[in-house]
Amino acid sequence: MRDIVVLIFLTGCIYAAVKKPWLGVLSLAIFSYLNPHAYAWGFVRSLPVYYVLFLVVAFRTFTTKDKQPLPKDWRIPVFVMLWIYFAITSVFAYFPELAWERFWFVTKIYIPFYFNLVLINTRYKLYWLIVTIGASIGIVAFKGGLFAILHGFSARVYGPPSTQFEDNNQFAVAMLMCIPLLLVWQRETLNPWFKKGILFVIPVIYAASLSSWSRGALLTMTALTMMLIWNSKRKIFAIPLVIIGIFVFIPFLPQEWFGRMNTLETYQQDGSAMGRIEAWTDGWNHTLEHPFDGAGFEGWRWVTMRDWHSSYVEMFSEHGFIAFGLWLSLILGSLVSLTTLPKKTRQVEGMEWVALYCFMVKASLICYMVGTAFLGLSYWDLLYHLIFISVLIKKFALEELAVRQKDKIKPRWAMKMNY
Asked: Which residue ranges of the chain lie beneath pLDDT 70?
């Protein structure tokens, strides 16, 4: 039965992509983050459903007229340079076969972002892309949160199978990153049921993240909560609400959970924490000796025999400092853009959406920066989705601002003719 449902859903997505290619972009996001075919039991589970949908979207991208040129933004050529640099480091990798296999895996993640940049050509479509990503992760997170609550937080919550965040630690960070995206939906929707429903879902997602037993998630959760309180117009209500929530959840958490979190202070006595520090030290020392090419994809097998357990260490250890600089500039440059852009539209009536979108995407990016300091997720598609969403926010905001300023300086006779 599940196979039939997933097959019908895939058929609907293909039909939508053929009729309106930008809906194919949303469909790819659903199959990337919600991964519905992984919940099937039969033949659908082994079908290359994502690649079938990818081919349909690729064909329609080159045949449709409803698209835009690539935005003129410095982050796009830097992104391409980073991808090319991955190819160069793969040539000199310690394990060429593994490196090239990983390179093509990353390439398959990167290529679909072209569709995002050319097919998401209006703010309306961008809004639905944000909603789709947030909802796709949020649905699984809500399910995990209910599971955690019903089991008294005694069992760990894991992500969708066969995804980049199926591990409990990775999924915890993904869940927290989706909360700001859901808040865009909550603020923008006119449906009162959705507004109330999303506010109900968010505490459940917090519960799911707590039940991941991830120490990195606890730090990420703290950072996200502080940012949301800071941005809230009702701080006087938000702060007591958070405090009440803490006292509600704490009694239900098992003692083992507290024991694991306490290792944040006593990391010298924790074998896992010390193993990570040793891997980071090995990666840093190796990169000092090979600053331009690093160890290549999967280079941890040669350098330290442990996974990197950090996106930052993973990037400079596997590809050197130049690639690390390109990668970090995409993240920091997006944060700068998302911080400065609202200042240009602050006094413009009707452009309040810019501040909302910028803050929430920035909050999600900061969640990534905090959470993946302890997780090797530097090739994660969610990161690049956020970067390119920030590119599109800037494009649409500046275009709308230019139109409004042009209308504002029109001569009076022209304004009269418009009426």
From this structure: 1-2, 37-46, 162, 234-273, 408-419
* Residue 164: closest CA among 400, 384, 380: 380
Mean pLDDT across the chain, nearest whole number? 85
Q: How many CB atoms lie within 10 A of CB 65?
A: 4
**Structurally, how many domains does the chain consist of?**
3
How far is 396 from 388, CA to CA, in rounded Å? Answer: 12
217 and 252 belong to one structural domain: yes
193 contacts: CB under 8 Å, gap ≥ 6: none
- C-alpha–C-alpha distance, residues 112 and 58, integer Å: 8
78 and 154 share a domain?
A: no
Q: What is the pLDDT of residue 417?
A: 41
pLDDT at 276: 82
Q: Kindly state whether residues 259 and 151 are assigned to the same domain.
A: yes
The CA distance from 89 to 99, in Å, is 9
- What's the rounded Cα separation, in Å, for the pair 229 and 68? 37
Q: Which domain holds residue 26?
A: 1-67
Torsion of CA 214, 218, 224, 228, to 10 degrees: 130
Q: What interhelical angle do 352-371 and 168-188 show, nearest 10?
A: 170
Cβ contacts of 278-285, under 8 Å, gap ≥ 24: 278/304, 278/306, 279/304, 279/306, 279/307, 279/308, 279/309, 279/313, 280/308, 280/309, 280/310, 280/313, 283/308, 283/313, 283/314, 283/316, 283/317, 284/313, 284/316, 284/317
| pLDDT score for 59 | 95
Q: Taking Cα atoms as reference points, which of 108, 243, 129, 181 lies closest to residue 367?
A: 181
The model carries a pTM of: 0.90
DSSP assigned state of 306: S
Rounded to whole angstroms, how far apart are CA atoms 60 and 278?
49
Asked if residue 274 and residue 419 are part of one domain, the reply reads: yes
CA triple 167-171-172, angle to 5 deg: 120
- Backbone angles phi and psi of 68, in degrees to 5: -125, 160
Supply φ then ψ for residue 26, to 5 degrees: -65, -40
Q: Are both 98 and 31 inside the same structural domain?
A: no
Question: Cα–Cα distances in Å, from 388 out to 133, 197, 281, 365, 384?
Answer: 13, 28, 32, 12, 6
Both 138 and 90 in a single domain?
A: no
